[in-house]
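Propose amino acids for all 378 sites.
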């Protein structure tokens, strides 16, 4: 099947960005939301963003105009899916809502239309089973903002056909993005499985060692090769996103994550990070001020447990057949901006040391810390 027209369900933060990227790549887009006013706002944002790209010389004014003209904002669901070969669903991350949306969609769309969900944490196989076409259902996880982020995780469900996996990979590549396949539908897929538990672990490291958040962040940036500190990254992502992802991942598997109460506290207090002006750090009104991190501060933090946490999750993904070392490293570069491979950090510390530290933490705090057998083997 040749993919020419795509329906995008949901025109919010992610939906309008995906619509822009796909229209720029030449696809005809039906952008659907539940009210016209949401679509008007989305189209305004897309127009602004395309014009900005044109003014920076990234495309011509004609190309920007043509991309915008390829997007049709439509409220009526049946009209929105007519003639499309694929639907990318980008509605809020609420299981009940997603299932309701898919029930409607399943009735409205022809049987050969492929459904792709942009969910960050919900189980693909479970949502797929609520439709009449689990073989034509796939996870396609874009990162925020879709206009800039190169990585797209592709998550086949248990019944997804190989044709649909190929079609989705081809689509992602045609958008100028890089696809990393998470071969099993595991909680958090690849990036959230590495990132979200580490935010919690960083809070535990502060509790256990007395390190400040600036010291932890400096070690993460200068010793582990992150583009910024883990608390900075959490503030950038948003405590609402992290809190929700934590709850979903923990619901699916208690061993994936050891939630630290600080995240829920920040969320409950409305301290969502940069978007609210305060999270782990405070941000002044309109401009993004970088936190002062340094090599000196990095020296004051023992980051072994942070590296142990993320490498143990990477090992889990390999042991459980969801990914392999090179794909994980590629995803970490593209999705987390890592400048140093994860397993290089681990080898610098020593895999034996990491495994024995994890063993000691497991004896004290429980199974969450149990080292993956792969670490011992390596
Ligand atoms: N925001 C992020 O950083 C991010 C990153 C990656 C993935 N995601 C995932 O993308 C999805 C959407 O997140 P978001 O941040 O764009 O949410 P959002 O709240 O900004 O946008 C969701 C949009 O869906 C619309 N909507 C609700 N019901 C609908 C329906 N029946 N049909 C069509 N549209 C409907 C809403 O009106 C809203 O405009 C979620 O699954 C989320 O987990 C979000």
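Proposal:
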């Amino acid at each position: 099947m040749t993919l020419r027209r795509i329906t995008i369900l949901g025109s919010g933060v992610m939906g309008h960005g995906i619509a822009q990227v796909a229209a720029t790549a030449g696809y005809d887009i039906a952008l659907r939301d539940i009210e016209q006013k949401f679509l008007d706002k989305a189209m305004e944002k897309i127009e602004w963003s395309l014009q900005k790209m044109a003014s920076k010389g990234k495309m011509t004014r004609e190309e920007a105009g043509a991309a915008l003209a390829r997007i049709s904002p439509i409220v009526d669901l049946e009209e929105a899916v007519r003639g499309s070969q694929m639907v990318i669903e980008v509605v809020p991350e609420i299981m009940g809502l997603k299932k309701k949306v898919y029930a409607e969609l399943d009735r409205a769309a022809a049987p050969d239309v492929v459904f792709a969900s942009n969910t960050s944490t919900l189980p693909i196989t479970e949502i797929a089973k609520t439709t009449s076409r689990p073989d034509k259902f796939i996870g396609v996880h874009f990162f925020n903002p879709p206009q800039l982020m190169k990585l797209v995780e592709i998550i086949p469900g248990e019944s997804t056909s190989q044709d649909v996996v190929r079609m989705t990979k081809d689509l992602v590549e045609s958008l100028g993005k890089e696809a990393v396949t998470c071969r099993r539908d595991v909680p958090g897929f690849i990036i959230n499985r590495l990132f979200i538990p580490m935010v919690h672990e960083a809070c535990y490291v502060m509790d256990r060692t007395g390190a400040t958040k600036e010291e932890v962040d400096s070690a993460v940036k200068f010793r582990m090769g992150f583009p910024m500190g883990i608390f900075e990254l959490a503030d950038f992502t948003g405590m609402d996103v992290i809190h929700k992802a934590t709850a979903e991942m923990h619901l699916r598997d208690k061993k994936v994550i050891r939630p630290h109460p600080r995240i829920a506290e920040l969320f409950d207090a409305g301290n969502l990070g940069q978007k609210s002006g305060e999270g782990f750090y405070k941000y002044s009104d309109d401009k993004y001020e970088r936190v002062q991190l340094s090599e000196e501060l990095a020296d004051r933090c023992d980051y072994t447990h942070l590296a142990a946490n993320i490498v143990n999750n990477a090992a889990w993904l390999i042991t459980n057949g969801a990914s392999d070392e090179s794909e994980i490293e590629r995803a970490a570069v593209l999705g987390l901006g890592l400048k140093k491979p994860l397993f290089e950090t681990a080898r610098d510390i020593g895999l034996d040391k990491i495994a024995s530290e994890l063993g000691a933490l497991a004896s004290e705090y429980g199974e969450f810390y149990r080292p993956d057998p792969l670490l011992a083997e390596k």
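The radius of gyration is 21 Å. The first strand starts at residue 5 and ends at 9.
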